[in-house]
Amino acid sequence: MTNNFLTTIKSLKLIEGCKAAQLYALSSVGATASTSGSGDAGGSSRPQPPPPPKAISMRSGSLYYPHAAPSTSGAFVPEPHLPCGLPVADALEPALDACLRPVDHVAALAASYRRVSAATSSAAEGGGEGDDLCDAYLEQHALFQSMGDARLLRRALRAARVHAGDPHRRAVLAAWLRYERREDELDPAPPPLAPCTATTPLLECPRAAVFAGVSAGVDPVCPCRRPYTPPLPAASSFSEDETNDLWFIIGEEEVACERSSIASLSKPLNTLLYGGFAEAQRDRIDFSRDGITPRGMRAVAAYSRHSRVNDFPPDTISQLLAFANRFCCDGLKAACDAELAAMVRGADDAHSLIDVGLEEASHLLLASCLQAFLRELPGSLTNPDVSRLLCSPEGRERLDAAGNASFALYYFLSQVAMEQDAKSNTTVMLLERMSECAERPWQRQLALHQLGCVMLGRGEFEDAQEWFEAAVAEGHVYSLAGEARAKYKRGHKYAAYKLMSSVVGEYDEPAGWMYQERSLYCVGKEKLADLSSATELDPTMTFPYKYRACAMLEEDKAASAIEEIGKVIGFKMATDCLELRAWFYLALEEYELAVQDVRAVLTLEPGYMMFHGRMHGEQLIELLRGQLQQWDMADCWMQLYDRWSAVDDIGSLAVVQQMLSREPGNSSLRFRQSLLLLRLNCQKAAMRSLRYARNSSLHEHERLVYEGWILYDSGHRDEALAKAEQSISLQRSFEAFFLKAYALGDSSMDTESSLSVVQLLEHANSCASDNLRKGQAYNNMGSIYVDCDMLDEAAECYGIALNIKHTRAHQGLARVHYLKNRKQAAFDEMTKLVRIATNSASAYEKRSEYGERDAAKTDLNTATILDPTRTYPYRYRAAVLMDENKEEEAIAELSGAIAFKPDLQLLHLRAAFFESMGDGASTLRDCEAALCLDPTHGDTLELYSKASKRPEPES
């Protein structure tokens, strides 16, 4: 029997359009379909909930695509009633990474660590290398981008801010840190230059950025929080007969001054008034042509006597500043600069004063004005005056002349612009300015490569090729992939293939991306062989899975296609992969599963457009409504409870998204959504959900909790703790106590402190909440009891958690069994979790700790298949090989993982292996790379010190 829905929907004629030749040709930069972290992209800085779907007639012709692509060559032929056609394997194209991507990450990280160490030593010896140290940490930030670890990126930015030696860089980096938290998206948005509150991160303080001392360190007390000191009273009037011995004539007015006071302002004035000039013999000097008004000259006279400018209005201080520049009055200029800078309290002030700063080269004033603009990004880039200043070559030259143009400034601006619209003219201009400011090799590599990526996305292939070639000439090998891509787009397929083949052949250990790129320019078995090699070398790249899945679908192997794309979704929540699997489910008429994936996509990216940007995900759900079982909110809660207990994170995410489509203002649901996203390692999307939760909350104590979680997830533990305490002071609640316990438990504690955290969790469970959250609290309590060696209490907590279906408590209970020397019971307990969470790499990995060696190997191999990014299986297998004296195999096991995931523990273990083998150079390199990732790692520091003291072997 023909499905009536499919018969009806075929009038939409989606088949032809969804087979368009460039369906999955993702943009080379800023491809919002490629990762879960791109949900913040868009034209507005303030996130908005997705608009409700427009009413769509089932026979609407508005979604008809006029350009049909050639049919696929595979055996699978879509039925005429298939609602969305089929994706075409040969139309897929991976995105180019618009960041630094070294061929050898380990060597690059090690070199970066050495540069930081050298700059630190130089600064400690008084070499004044603060800017070098700041730039070294910015280089680390650029290197960390390709690794995708938000914690490393934040740490590098913070370190750069701490060591920024001038107001300009401090203002830029403080604004960048604030932008990363998206504080401007809170409702109402705090003024960008408002004084700090008790919980504002110190490194983001606007006053500390501009008005800190010359020291590269950070003042431990925020200037905004210092006790208020009232200004000194105005000086008493003085007797003109006694102190006035010099008059300046301006027009028809005379301004009385004291000669010695005016002369003390600068050496030129001292020479003028006491040197061999005629003015030294005169008591009246004509200043009518010196560009200062009588009021301005009276202000100069007053400053010369009292050294204060805070009594004057801005226009008078501007005249003082011009006078100071003309006569080299350094003290007067500094005072005027600081006073005008302090007057900048927002964008309006910045607009009115920035021309003064540019004309008079006022460093602090310009830093304050720039800070006001930067703290309103991305919105400020839409202002024509700001855009002209920041984007144009003339604007950069004016900023540079005033000492306020830097690579750091344009690095930040270009990141913001690329996130908003990677193809815009604004992005191109900012990247061009960034390349003009680039002085070091890594800076030029980054700017030129990103220009190539942007031009490729704009379809300007000749320009793209030139930029990529320039980046290659600076030493960025990954830009060869962009060069090949540009050549291919220009019709030179063989040249592209030849170029990538030469790259593959040049290296003894080629990277996975090299094979992936070469696969684009070959066909058949050769293409599949390259994709297989790419996955073997780097299983985290999504393109090979997508291509193989689409190829399987074309061969009428839909179930295999779903299994293939599911491999990558199991460890990487990529929106394009979820969309592709939803597409496959539609082909199999599995509408419930298709909609589940669509809802997951919309959670990651609320504005996501399906089918080559032709249909919003909400519209597709609306079209499929008649094919779905309808749930009310009670049904949704039951479904959420079941899926949460079944450790089905994607299913839970989909249910929460469905609930939010009914109650978009439910802050509790938004918060729960953020927890799921964090568990799935989708931090940017999680932060967006937290901001939604905070903005939609009706109660102050709830808003404080959500603000606390935003701070905690941004790495500001103490500030998060303060928010929790503020919330508890207003009203006791589960989430406030839970946040306080989490923040306190984040640091190493003794038994007494740990038990105080347990008490907080008990307070949390005494407050109203649902079993999903209470189960988490009991599970956390159990973990703390285990750390305190209170195993019976831990078992009791885990038992309570399991009784309310917090399934992950099986893992904690297994740990208790193991510590009580019941290894088989621990294995059996983990087997229960494995049966429930059938595709959980974590469950298999944890069970391996309690099984015999063969069983452990089997579990760890399964864990690696399910999630190749988990590092423990590689370390275990390498240790086993080392025990068997298979040193080369052990090194190879670790090296294979390090090639696509430079992890601290992997690097430390390999360094230890090299040390035991007597390979000092390799030991030092791996230690340096590991310390680049975590400079405080004690074991690595000890190993590094030991290896550094070992004498070099004689040649």
Automatic annotation (TrEMBL):
Gene3D superfamilies: Potassium Channel Kv1.1, Chain A, Tetratricopeptide repeat domain. It comes from the Eukaryota. It holds the Pfam family TPR_8. Residues 35-60 are annotated as: Disordered. Residues 244-344 form the BTB domain. Pathway: Protein modification; protein ubiquitination. This is BTB domain-containing protein.
